[in-house]
Design goal:
heterodimer, A: 123 residues, mainly alpha, Arc Repressor Mutant, subunit A, two-stranded antiparallel sheet, elongated, B: 294 residues, alpha/beta, Rossmann fold, 6-stranded mixed beta sheet, 4-stranded antiparallel beta sheet, 10 helices
Chain lengths: 123, 294
């Protein structure tokens, strides 16, 4: 898993890290059950506060991206995880909605939009 | 959460300066940045914790022990790093170790020499000839070699180059990694604590202006800018460190009043440095309006 911080960004550090981890999990760049660095290891590596990394892991665990195993640490949640699946479906719906809106704005009929989607699925 | 350090209503007055009801606490396993302009009371507070200054009233507990009654027991488990070297300058690292060893029941020679080596310090040179960064590292090596659970650093980074400051942050982050140890880090170079500190205590004029997590402080104040005509009077009164110039004004505002800010004004997040500057501006206003009243 890749984690880094942009110092000169207006996005708070915890959001930057959360977004990176979410994206990598959603895009399948991580292994199921891959272990994450410990809260304190990550704070030390990035030279950020322990409270910040604690917040990142708590948020991601609440959202179902990672799971906490007592005494062992944090792991990427299994793909069949309910919360994660919901999140992916939600992402898909949002993307489809955007696609439909863009298509209609461009003057396409609903059939044409559906055809375009089918074409993508065949690729 | 257990507090490794607890200060309750500390008062200490000198002829021209006083600490007034200073209270804050630091939980075990975290780093606290202790900030404020020069003369705000950081060093007096630290001297009080170390029982180097006699306090007028209040209570300081370190590891749950009393700072005055149990001062000897506390110092066994405490590491200190000052702005200047408190060790004999004409001695070598080796000789300094011989001097210190008898004082600490848990002195770890192996750890000391491994740290000295890791920090790249020569063992046989007079420590007086060391650079500022090397002296700081020597004090840290001492602190790390007697199993100290709390490290107190008073302005360790003033006069250090950016590389040495970065190394220090690394050492501190490593130090607290085991969740059992804490750091109290006083500095006026706020960039050093902006990232790595979990808690911030901000002093101004001998009083605590803020104490809490850094995240809390992060969202607490904004800078407010724009044309004075667009600033309602009710909001003007809530401004901290208001400063008007020919084409506009700037001030700091508590984010609880964000709803009252008209669209014509702009806001941006205030960092620790900016907060310190606006607090100081506000204090100068108060002083000058007091003298106006006289």
């Amino acid at each position: 898993m890749k984690i880094y911080i942009k110092n000169k960004s207006d996005v708070p550090i915890y959001e930057q890290i959360e977004e990176q981890i979410r994206t990598q999990i959603l895009e399948g760049q991580t292994e199921e059950n891959e272990q994450l660095p410990s809260i304190r290891q990550l704070a030390r590596d990035l030279k950020i506060s322990v409270i910040t990394t604690t917040r990142v892991y708590n948020d991601l665990a609440d959202e179902g991206f990672i799971i906490s195993v007592a005494g062992k640490g944090y792991f990427v949640a299994p793909r069949n995880n309910e919360l994660l699946r919901e999140r992916m479906l939600c992402d898909m719906e949002e993307a489809l909605e955007r696609a439909v809106t863009s298509g209609r704005n461009a003057g396409l009929s609903d059939d044409e939009i559906a055809a375009a989607l089918r074409k993508f699925m065949e690729e | 959460m257990e507090n490794i350090l607890e200060i309750k209503e500390l008062n200490k007055s000198y002829a021209d300066f006083a600490l007034k009801d200073v209270s804050f606490s630091l939980p075990r396993g975290y780093i606290m940045g202790f900030v404020g302009e020069n003369g705000s009371g950081k060093t007096t507070t630290i001297r009080s914790i170390l029982n180097m200054a006699k306090i007028d009233s209040g209570k300081i507990s370190v590891f749950g022990l009393d700072s005055i009654k149990d001062t000897v027991a506390i110092k066994q488990r405490l590491g200190v790093v000052f702005d200047s070297l408190y060790l004999a300058e004409h001695l070598s690292v080796r000789q300094i170790e011989q001097q210190l060893m008898p004082f600490y029941s848990e002195w770890d020679t192996k750890e000391f020499h491994s740290k000295i080596k890791q920090f790249g310090l020569p063992e046989d040179k007079e420590v007086g000839s060391f650079s500022k960064g090397m002296k700081m590292k020597l004090m840290i090596a001492v602190a790390l070699s007697h199993n100290a659970e709390l490290m107190i650093l008073d302005e360790p980074t003033s006069g250090l180059d950016p590389v040495a400051r970065d190394e220090l942050l690394d050492i501190l982050a490593e130090y607290i990694e085991d969740e059992k140890r804490s750091v109290l880090f006083s500095t006026h170079i706020t960039a050093d604590v902006e990232r790595v500190a979990d808690y911030i205590t901000m002093l101004h004029g001998g009083r605590v202006w803020f104490t809490g997590t850094k995240d809390e402080l992060d969202g607490k104040y904004v800078l407010l800018k724009g044309a004075e005509d667009d600033l309602p009077d009710a909001l003007r009164e809530k401004c901290i460190g208001f400063h008007a110039y020919r084409n506009g004004f700037d001030a700091m505002l508590d984010t609880q009043y964000l709803d009252e800010v008209p669209d014509a004004l702009v806001t941006e997040k205030a960092n620790i440095d900016e907060i310190l500057v606006y607090i100081a501006k506000e204090a100068r206003h108060e002083k000058s309006s007091e003298s106006d009243a006289v």
